[in-house]
Amino acid sequence: MRLPILTTAAALTLAVALPGAAQAATPTAQLPCVEVLLVSISCPQSPAPRAGQACPGRHLAPSAATLARVRTATHCLINQQRTKRGLKKLKSVTTLQRVATAYAKRMAREDFFEHTSPDGGTFLSRIKRTSYLRGGLSRWSVGENIAWATGELATPERIVRAWMASPGHKRNILNSRFTELGLGVAVGAPEAGADAADAATYVNEFGERRR
User: What is the dihedral of CA 58, 61, 66, 68, to 10 degrees?
Assistant: First the structure.
């Protein structure tokens, strides 16, 4: 049985403070317990708790008929991981959800699995094409997690469990600076030859904005 596939580059995070020179982080996988701009984040030493029992749809297999419930369950499980550690819940934002959904569909359709698309687009450029970072912000930060799996490994509970077992992805989920997210789930695998009907591709965009 194959395990959920996560990005080899791990989760990506970028933060900028304005006014002043913009400062961009490198991928955070090599910077444990340190967020960009010298802001520390919490890195609990105890194992992540099991996904709770209060998120309906956590065992659902993604399909055209269940995508909305799968997305809601994934959001619930992510917030559960945060609140168990004393962090605030992330609010779903339609703009980020649209970015995430479009990118999940594109990866499944075009058979690639990377934070950077074949034409060079990054998660930051995808978000910047929307209104999300407009409006006189004094500071903002964004991040992205992606994953895909087949069969029972593609359920919200198994995907969130896999993210929490990966230091870079876990760091984004538990980043105390993030306040918002947008989840996208697409039926299909971002890999040629995989059983597309039994697979799902997940994208999670994280964000924080201050005016």
Answer: 50
Angle between helical axes of 67-83 and 156-164 (0-180°, round to 10)? 40
Our CA angle for 74, 187, 192, nearest 5°, is 125
Q: In whole angstroms, what is the distance from residue 147 CA to residue 138 CA?
A: 31
Q: Catalogue the E-assigned strands of the chain.
A: 5-6, 12-17, 34-35, 39-40, 91-92, 139-150, 180-187, 199-210
- Residue 31 pLDDT exceeds 70: no
Residue 159 parent element (H or E)? helix 156-164
What count of Cα atoms within 13 Å lies in the side-chain half-sphere of residue 201?
A: 27
Which 3 state secondary structure label does DSSP give 39?
A: strand
What is the model's pLDDT at position 5?
65
How far apart (Å, rounded) are the C-alpha atoms in residues 34 and 16? 15
- How confident is the model over 51-108, as pLDDT tens digits? 446 899 999 999 999 999 999 999 999 999 999 999 999 999 999 999 999 999 999 9
Among the listed residues 210, 160, 174, 13, the one whose alpha carbon sits nearest the alpha carbon of residue 87: 174
Cross-strand bridge partners of residue 120: none
Asked if 126 and 12 touch (Cβ cutoff 8 Å), the reply is no
